[in-house]
Amino acid sequence: MNRIITIGREFGSGGRELGRRLSEIMGIAYYDREVIMEISKRTEMSEQYVRQIMNQRPVISYPIHIGRHFVTSTNPVLQQSLEVFSSQREILREMAEKSDCIIIGRCADYILADREPARLFVYADIKSRIARCREKDPEENRTDAALEKEILKIDKGRAAYYNHFTGLEWGNPRNYDLCVNTTNCEIKNLAQCLAGMFY
Amino acid sequence: MNRIITIGREFGSGGRELGRRLSEIMGIAYYDREVIMEISKRTEMSEQYVRQIMNQRPVISYPIHIGRHFVTSTNPVLQQSLEVFSSQREILREMAEKSDCIIIGRCADYILADREPARLFVYADIKSRIARCREKDPEENRTDAALEKEILKIDKGRAAYYNHFTGLEWGNPRNYDLCVNTTNCEIKNLAQCLAGMFY
Predict the structure, then answer these.
(1) What is the pTM of this model?
(2) By residue range, what is the domain housing residue A131?
(3) B100-125: per-residue pLDDT in tens?
(4) What angle do the packed helices A126-136 and A144-166 form, to 10 degrees?
(5) Across the interface, do A181 and B196 touch by the CB < 8 Å criterion?
(6) CATH of the domain at A101
(7) Structurally, how many domains does chain B consist of?
(8) Cβ-based contacts of A109 with chain B (< 8 Å)
(9) ipTM of this complex
């Protein structure tokens, strides 16, 4: 069975960089945006729209009661959410089948549970996440307060999507094998250390 | 500054074994029961009593209102809790001063915060914790349900003591650098892997 490492991460925690560096050190495949690109291709939705769907809780439709008949509303947004998740599941399973790999986000820990992945969750305090965002984008000129609001909003969306489709709680240590706090941490060094754990 | 590793752990998660093995591999001091023994010596309370105090939330005393006078009750159990914690702080600081070391529990992550310890938290699902308890004590003949109840009670006590004196939440990833799930995990192998992270 291929070795799979899944990485859930808070926005700005460096989880994506950690995954990329780990994949370089270990010489295994790395999937991040590739998942979205592939979903976009298969569902014929734009990448941006797929990303938007994956960053929020699906809008639920309830049956509408008309007289004595029940009519299930065909809420198009909900349909699209389901389509994205279904496509996501298919793609992740294909990727896991192909070779050893590292997958960032996308509920991979849950979708690939039967393949017993090493499930990482990467987090950090809000100050260091703001600092990391500024480092990555020197032209970022919003205030700390505005950035914090944005970061927490993104996390809320990720959590909502994850919780909805997995029935688990995003970021709860029970759902991961290793939770790593990257506050005041050099991702480069951390990747070296963690790679030792996975050899 | 000496290198300090603190290990908080759920009962039955193998955190103590992990600490002992890490200390052997890294060749550094290991403190577990030693802390209790030393507190017992300095406070002249029995080891068992010290342990009991450290496994529960201190009983708070409120001022008693008599007529127009306020009289602060001198609750002896609360006094003893405070004495134990004060002694605990003193001892841990001495240990951290002496050499590199690994300290199990005892709010060491909080007490030694200014020494920037690597703060581990070790946890596991309840089934594997029950199995680990049976493995350690083959004469353990309580039912799974009874063992589970006991394990959760011990954790509740540890959490209450920790939360009371630190003002933080025991087991919350925000308060640790690394949280390790030992479910289905060989502690021996895990110790080897983690040691690589601390060299």
Answers:
(1) 0.88
(2) 4-56+87-198
(3) 999 999 999 999 999 999 999 999 99
(4) 100
(5) no
(6) 3.40.50.300
(7) 1
(8) none
(9) 0.86
